[in-house]
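Weekly structure sync, notes
Attendees: PL (lead), two postdocs, one rotation student
Agenda item 3: pending single-chain targets
PL asked that the sequence for the first pending target be pasted directly into the notes so everyone works from the same version. It is reproduced below exactly as submitted, 202 residues in total.
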Amino acid sequence: MRAVGEYSWLLEFDDGDERKANERARRAAALLHGLKPDGLVEAIPAARTLFVEGSPLFEAGILVGLEAGEIEVPPSPVASHEIHVRFDGEDLPAVSAVSGVSKEELLETFCAATYTVGFLGFSPGFAYLYGLPRRLHLPRRGTPRLSVPAGSVAIAGPYAGIYPASMPGGWHLLGVADAPLFDAGRTPPVLFAPGDTVRFVP
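Predicted structure, written out during the meeting:
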């Protein structure tokens, strides 16, 4: 654990498996939110870390036990999402060729998996989803696109994701979803939360 501000800390989870490290970060964040200790402002999980912001009232000692795994963190309830996708992405032929599977096999493999929201970042509502089958793990595109359409379902590295708005991006595009990922007028404004599960349906 290290201080990154006057009343903010970064917990680091050194598990060899990033997905396990992320799970620990998510469960620690859920525990803090559930306990609502005095002075807690926010707890935000990332791939291998947990950012905690507090106030002068926050007692940071609890964070030491969380990072070391000395505090039992029970699983928290999560939401499940079914996302409908039109699979006509520009990169489908290239992903199929590099993965060594037909387009039909690719989509069957992609849709058979259950994904977990690991963390949000990059853009409001953009969720990094764990669970992509290993045979579909590909590096990012060599040249990012200047504009990726809103709702694009894409993959890169060990992640799947959906672009919440039109923006630059370097992931491989498989199709387009109709899910409203971010709405500033909604409570909460983002559709996904860390720990939620996601299934993709053609």
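Discussion points:
- Helices lie at 18-35, 61-68, 92-99, 103-112.
- The domain at 80-201 is CATH 2.40.100.10 (Cyclophilin).
Action: rotation student to compare against the earlier draft before next sync.
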